[in-house]
Design brief:
Helix 9 crosses helix 12. The two termini are 16 Å apart. This protein is of the alpha/beta class. The strands form three sheets. Strands 1-2-13-14-3-12-6-11-7-10 form a ten-stranded mixed β-sheet, sandwiched between helices. Strands 4-5 form a two-stranded antiparallel ribbon. It has a two-stranded antiparallel sheet with strand order 8-9.
Length: 382
């Protein structure tokens, strides 16, 4: 990676500044750098990747502070919170272990300050996506029993239908008997309040599937949504469309990873390799398309693991694909499993320049439950 020229971005809120937005002891950075995976492609090709981004899609960014405390009560009842060493712990035991030291950050004032930075980052991605003028957006995200069921969950699947239809959110999907107050806003921001249709690009999706098979990536293929009240696209897709597209009808190709469910969640090295094969398939496409890649999900949750998050972001910043390959599988359980989506996206960054990264750890409770939110953009080298 070439020399990076970075300028530090300062936060106005003192509490929000403390470790928030920092990747490696420094504030969120805006950088010029080369992408991962070696040299940029050469020769004449039809399609090209012109934009890439990563974004968290936490419900906390859909309903604001007024309902965040209600949402946080779920954590206190959780008997199986995932730690980055691969173990699990009950909330009460976690609270005792950390001696409630995160209470100073789990306040409404801090949440509002950090949420403001997150929303500004989302708006910045939306603006830069519009500037890139993609013909199609590939959203790399996870399926949490939304399109697929536990009867059959592929490790990775690409959609090649012409229309995306979302599945309405059910409170049963969150193991809740009755919809909580935050539920309506969350479902709407995920485009899961009712079945909603969005344009896809079936011919390009099919071409990518065929080229991945040629590259020995045995990808699953989904061609239609038959009963959207029972199965359809979910939060990882709907959040990106609702929050980042600005009402524009940009065709989407969902690239769905099984990040959550054993026994066939792909390991980090495989995610990176799939991303590289996907990028090679795009570069060889016979269609003249401007392509955007967006990783949707992550970073660490439902316990904030800042060390893990910063390790991921440093690797992305420095173009360190080997560090991404070596992320321990045990660190990627439960919500933290969505880090796989970022690793796969990293495999497609050849020739793109990192423009900026933002990191905000959002603590919901004194025990340290919450999410490490992250946002970033890569653009064509100029």
């Amino acid at each position: 990676m070439g020399q990076a020229r970075c300028r530090h971005l300062e936060s106005q809120d003192r509490l929000a500044r403390q470790d928030a937005g920092r990747i490696d002891g420094a504030q969120a950075v805006e950088c010029k750098s080369t992408g991962l995976n070696g040299p940029a492609r050469s020769g004449v090709v039809m399609s090209k990747v012109v934009f890439a981004a990563g974004t968290s899609h936490t419900p906390l960014l859909t309903f604001g502070a007024a309902l965040s405390q209600e949402y946080s009560q779920r954590d206190t009842r959780n008997e199986r919170l995932n730690l980055s060493d691969g173990s699990f712990i009950a909330y009460g035991d976690l609270l005792a272990r950390v001696q409630a030291r995160h209470g100073v950050e789990a306040t409404e004032a801090v949440f509002l300050a950090r949420e403001k930075i997150c929303q500004a980052s989302l708006s910045r991605i939306a603006t830069e996506l519009q500037e890139a003028k993609p013909d199609v957006v590939l959203i790399l995200t996870d399926d949490e029993s939304e399109l697929f069921s536990r009867a059959n969950t592929p490790a990775v699947s690409i959609y090649y239908g012409d229309t995306i239809i979302t599945r309405p959110f059910s409170s049963k999907m969150l193991d809740l008997d009755d919809p909580p107050p935050y539920f309506v806003e969350m479902a709407k921001h995920y485009a899961m309040d009712e079945p909603r249709s969005f344009p896809a690009m079936g011919s390009f999706g099919r071409e990518l599937i065929e080229k991945l098979i040629e590259r020995h990536i045995d990808v699953g293929a989904a061609g239609q949504v038959e009963e959207p009240l029972r199965s359809g696209f979910g939060h990882g897709i709907g959040f990106v469309i609702q929050r980042l597209f600005g009402g524009r009808d940009i065709p989407v190709i969902p690239v769905l990873f099984n990040t959550y469910y054993p026994p066939n969640a792909p390991v980090p090295a495989r995610c990176l390799d799939i991303g590289r094969a996907l990028r090679a398939s795009i570069d060889e496409s016979t269609q003249d398309l401007r392509v955007a890649l967006i990783a949707s999900g992550g970073l660490s949750h439902f316990i904030v693991e800042e060390e893990l998050d910063r390790k991921i972001l440093r690797a992305l910043r420095d173009g360190d694909s080997e560090s991404l390959r070596r992320i321990p599988v045990g660190a990627l359980n439960s919500g933290s499993s969505e880090i796989r989506n970022w690793i796969a996206m990293a495999g497609g960054l050849a020739g793109l320049q990192l423009k900026w990264l933002e990191y905000q750890p959002i603590y919901r409770t004194p025990a340290g439950t919450g999410i490490g939110t992250a946002f970033g953009v890569w653009r064509e080298a100029r």
